[in-house]
């Protein structure tokens, strides 16, 4: 048998654990993870290489009904995940009984490619709930193979991975064998900062934020970074900076720690907060931040 390679696209509702699973598959922290919904905004590719295979895992935003232009563009990333997938991984939470979008659900049920339906967070339930969940989804998605997993505890992940390798089509590698992702370094700087903002601030603030890294200078022993935190209103700028700048300082310290782990060297980071009015509904700005083709 020759070399195998293919795209494995992971979709599901927000907060179902897609990013945790992606990171477990790849063995690196590529997708940011927080307890808030809509943490993933872009389609992120994680590449796993074996001796005779290459898997391109794709983590997409959670399926939602869009409320503004940014979210509409996020859903375009999910739609594109159907177009090039060789294998579709559809994640649901134990006890979950619906998908937010009927069109997506019909596409899953009528998919001509292999579909693996993963019942995640089974560590939060019991055997009866699992049996009930498997029966429910077998009826709903008869074309799917069903696995019970806990992405967080890494339970059942190895079995799913092995099955994915079995299902891969024969193909040469799409990317060099030493490549981990299709995203540039600045993308991960932006995502790490955004993750800390999601953790530090409440309500609408994290969803009104976009990060742009203006400077990324890599020297032998240190990387010097200057990143802009963009918000939509002046009042949000005040909240991000916070009393005596303490919340923003926390974001910088925690982001630096993660970046030093990710890049394997010392990092110096400067954060600046700017107002970019209504960027979430501005097509030009969304293109600039990589949300539109």
Walkthrough of the structure:
- The chain is built from 9 helices and 9 strands.
- The chain has 293 residues and is of the alpha/beta class.
- It folds into 2 domains: 164 residues, 3-Layer(aba) Sandwich (Rossmann fold); 104 residues, GMP Synthetase, Chain A, domain 3 (2-Layer Sandwich), CATH 3.30.300.20.
Short description:
The chain has 293 residues and is α/β, with parallel strands linked by helices. The chain has helices at residues 18-26, 69-83, 102-109, 127-140, 157-167, 185-200, 234-241, 246-263, 283-288; strands at 4-12, 44-49, 53-59, 87-93, 115-120, 144-148, 210-218, 222-231, 266-275.
Fold topology:
Elements: E1 4-12, H1 18-26, E2 44-49, E3 53-59, H2 69-83, E4 87-93, H3 102-109, E5 115-120, H4 127-140, E6 144-148, H5 157-167, H6 185-200, E7 210-218, E8 222-231, H7 234-241, H8 246-263, E9 266-275, H9 283-288
Parallel strand pairs: 1-3, 1-4, 4-5, 5-6, 8-9
Antiparallel strand pairs: 2-3, 7-8
Helix pairs in contact: 6-8
